[in-house]
Amino acid sequence: MNLLVIALASLAALAVVHGSTFLIGRKLGRYNVVDVAWGVGFIVVAAISAVLGTGDPFRRILLLGLVGLWAGRLSWHMVLKSAGKGEDPRYRQLLGGDFSAGHVLRKIFVIQAAATWFVSLPVQLSATLGPTPTALRPVLIAGVTIWVVGVAFEAVGDHQLRRFKSDPANKGAIMDRGLWAWTRHPNYFGDSCVWWGLWLVSICGWVSLVTALSPVLMTYFLVYATGARLAEKHMAGRPGFTEYCSRTSFFIPAPPRSG
């Protein structure tokens, strides 16, 4: 019953967050503002789970803190990234030229709200369960460690890319330095690590395994649906990109190969 309350409250809150963001996007004339709402939605769900949950207080607060730090940084990064710019080519392609309200809501906002709710199920379920058993504490520690690695890859990768693009001498060049020499998508890889780490933190018994599809779905989004593969479609044909791909791992970091 507690999980049902959290799940329904989370759905209602996400409807408000993404509905409001749609109206803001409609006014601005660009819908990439949903990228800001992506992080905000996770913070809202984690807060609802922490407040309404009747499970272990320590894990509820821990998950709220981990989700809040990750999502807060991501949302602020997206604010800076999209400020003063037009529509993201990914969303322009996804909409296929149809910018009617119903089409935009279905193709972008409803899907992202539903994905946020589903991906955050480990946080919701964990808020209803008892303390982490002693035997599973190493799993919790491993989860926090993977989360730290993920946030580091995201934050450092985004910072390196932002500095690279801020230099006029790099205009039109392919970013192939720092973490970007080890993986073509350090930010997406980091995002995936964050959610696998959060899933491990949420585990406190066999019942927790039912939420394993949540990080799987997040990883699918990051690699295929709206992440790495789609980004590379827009980069295909750029000078130096094919050579960059030939020596740099696609997703999982690995030492650069010889050119």
Automatic annotation (TrEMBL):
Gene3D superfamilies tied to this protein: 1.20.120.1630
Keyword Cytoplasm: no
UniProt keyword annotations, A-Z: Membrane, Transmembrane, Transmembrane helix
Entry-linked InterPro entries: UstE-like
PROSITE patterns: S5A_REDUCTASE
Pfam families, alphabetized: DUF1295
Bilayer-spanning residue ranges: 35-54, 61-79, 104-123, 135-153, 196-225
Protein name in the entry: DUF1295 domain-containing protein
Naturally occurring in which organism (per UniProt): Mycolicibacterium nivoides
